[in-house]
## 1
Amino acid sequence: MTPADAISNTWVDRAPVETQAYLRLARLDRPIGTWLLFWPCVFGLILGAVADGRAFTSRHDLWLLVLFGLGAIVMRGAGCTFNDIVDRDIDAKVARTRDRPIPSGAVSVKQAWIFLAALCAVGLVILLQLNWLAIELGVASLALVAIYPFMKRVTWWPQAWLGLTFNWGAVMGYAAESGRIDATVIVLYAGCFFWTLGYDTIYALQDIDDDALAGVKSTARLFGREAKRFIVMFYAASFALLATAGLAAHLGPLFLILLLPAGAHLVWQARELDIASAASALRLFRANRNAGALAAAAFFVAGWLQ
C-alpha cells in the first residue's frame, strides 16, 4: 500500500514485491527528503571550493558531488529507518504514517535493524572517501541522528533539532573541499537551519490533530494559528543568513541578485500556504526541492563567475 504522503506510480511500485517495503522504509518513494538533505551539502561544497580559491568545476568537485549525493540517499534512508523503529507505536496512531512498513507489519523490527546496519555500512564506505576532517564530522553527526526521534517527546521544537541534523552536510561539504571550518560555513549552517525550521513546520501542519491525540509535540502545534507568521520569519532569517554566507565568501553583490529567485520562491510558499489544509502543506513542503535548486544555482554561478 502506498502511504498517504508518498508519490504514487513510481519505480518503487514497479520494483519486485519483496523489496518494496524496504524501499519505502528508506523513503525512496518520497525523494523530497533526500533533496532537502542534499542541497545543503551542495551549498557547502561550492563555498568550500570558493574558500579554497577556485570555482566548483574540477573532476574532484564532481566526484565529491557524487559521493554526497549517494550519501544523502543512503543516510536519509538510514535515518528514516531508525526513526521508524523508534516511532513505530506513534506512527500506528497517525493516519498519515500508519501504513509505513513497520507499523503495518510489512517489515519486522528485527528486519528493520538489519536493514539499518546494511545502510550504515554503505554510508561508512562513502564517508571513508573524504578527508579526515569530513570523516570526523560525519561520525559526530550520528549523535544528532540518534537523538532526533526522541525530541518530539520532550520539546515543542523537534523541527529545530531536525535543522541541526539535516544540514550537517553543509559543514561536511565545506570541510571536504577546504579542509577547515570557519565563520563562513557556520553562517551557512545557520541559514540552512532556519530554512529547515520553516519547511518542517509546514510539513508538521499535516499532523496537528493526530499529533495532539498521540501526544507528539511540534512547532506546528506550538504556533497554531500563528504558524504562517513564524514560517515567514524563519524563511526571512534563512535568506539573510545564506546571503551573508555568500558575501563572507566574497561572492560579491551579484550573488545577492542571483539569490533573489530562491527568496521569491520562499515568499511564494508563505503566500500560498493554507495552514488548515494538509494537501497545501504537503505541496509546499515538497516545493522546497525547487527552492534549494535555485539557491544552489546562485552559489554555483556566483562562484564560477568569481
## 2
Amino acid sequence: MEITPRKNVILADFSSYKIGGPAEYFFEAKDWYEAEESLRWSKDNNSPIFILGGGTNILIPDDGIRGLVLKPLIDTLEFNDNVVLVGAGILMADLVYAVADLGLSGLEWAGGLPGTVGGAVRGNAGAFGGEMKDAVEYVESIDEKSFKKNTRDNSGCEFDYRNSIFKKNNREIVLQIALKLDRGSPEQIKKSIEEKIQYRKDRHPMEYPNIGSMFKNVDAKKASSELIKEAREVIKTDPFPVIPAAYLISEAGLKGVSFGGAMISQKHPNFIVNISKAKSSDVKELISLAKEEVRKKFGVTLEEEVLILK
C-alpha cells in the first residue's frame, strides 16, 4: 500500500526553535514498513528526502524544505534483562525515566536532553561526561537508496565527538537501537537525572525557543598554549578536555547581541535564542558573527553542533 504524504506542512510546528517554512511533502512513519514505503515513494516521485527527528538541533530554512520530509515515529520499547530495544522516535526524556523505573543505569547524563533517541544516536549526543556511544550495543537502520536494512554494532557505528557514521554518510535512517545498561538503584538513578535537569534549567535559557548548544566545544589539544593558559579555569571534560564555546563567545563580547528576532543568550552564550518571531536568516547572521569574532580574538574556528540547512 503506497503512502500518501501531506503537502505544504509548516515545519516550525515540528521545531523546538519554532522556525522554518513548509515541507513540500511530509509523512510520519509509524513502523519499518512505512519508513521503507516512504523511501520508495521518494524514489518513484524523483523527490529528495530529508529525515526529521525531534527538531531540537536543526535550523530549518525560512522557505522550507523541497521534497519529502520523513519523520520516523517508531516507538518500540522492549526490555530483556539489561538490554533495551528502543524505537528511533521515542523521546530521550521518556526513555531516561523508563529505564530508571527498572533500575537501569547509564543514561543519567541525558536528564533534560531534548529530542529523539534516533537523533541522539545520529549525533552521538553527550553531556556531563557521558555519550550515547557508551550505551549503544547495536543500531538497526535502512539505506535511503538501496532500502537495505543494516545492523551495525557499536564499532560499526563509527562514533566520534558529536558524530557517527549515520551523520557522516547521511544516507542511513536510524530506526531502532539496542542499548546495554547497568544495574543500579532506581532512587539514585532518578536523583541523578533530576540533578541534570535542574542544572540545565539553572544554566540554559529554557524560557526561549532554542535548539541547544549552537557550537561544539573546542578540543583543548587543538588550542594554542596562550588560549589554554587563559581558559585554564573553565576547561572541562566532555568527554575529553575542551574549552567551552560559551566561554569563547562570552569573552568575544557577544552576550546579549541580537539580530532581528534572534539573540545570543546572556544566560548561556552558546545558545542563540528565538526572542521574537526570529527567522532562520536572523540566526544565521548571529552564527556568522560569533564565528568571525571568536576567530579574530582567539584564532579558533567554531564548528556548528547543530544542523544548519541551506
